[in-house]
Request: fold
Amino acid sequence: MYVHNDEYYYSIIRKNIKYYRLRQHLTQQDLADMTDLSREYICDIENEHRNKHLTIAVLGRIANALNINITELFK
Reply:
């Protein structure tokens, strides 16, 4: 049986945000501009050494900006 805690899911989400961002040739600043978030906040989300948590609303804004279904960020 696997125990999936919050950090497990945050790790998956942060890797997927970065993956989809780079796949679309977007910089962190591009994504920040598209979501009305700061580049520093995007950097904190993607950085595995920072413990930056995000809300579902922010996750939805990022998914919309990346033109993907929010569920793709959990795979």
User: Anything to note?
Assistant: The CA atoms of residues 21 and 66 lie 7 Å apart.
